[in-house]
Amino acid sequence: MIKRILAWIALIFFLLIVANILFIHVYVTESVTIFLIYVLVVYFGRNRRYETGGLEDGETGDQPAEPETAPDSETGGPEQLE
To answer: Under a CB-based contact definition with an 8 Å cutoff, are residues 21 and 35 in contact?
Structure first.
């Protein structure tokens, strides 16, 4: 719940910064700096999530519970597939 509230606050600040850069023109240099920090955090956060498998905070993957097996030709027992 706290993450959602912080995400909404971050979105509101992001929209205010973009509106300031495009229309208001107060402290534009500082606004552009903060905008670039936002972009870098989102970019590197997304890359980190995809490199680690993409599962975060309650997300479920479509991974099978057990490895797939096939009958072994010599013994008739299961052989693990790669």
So the answer is: yes
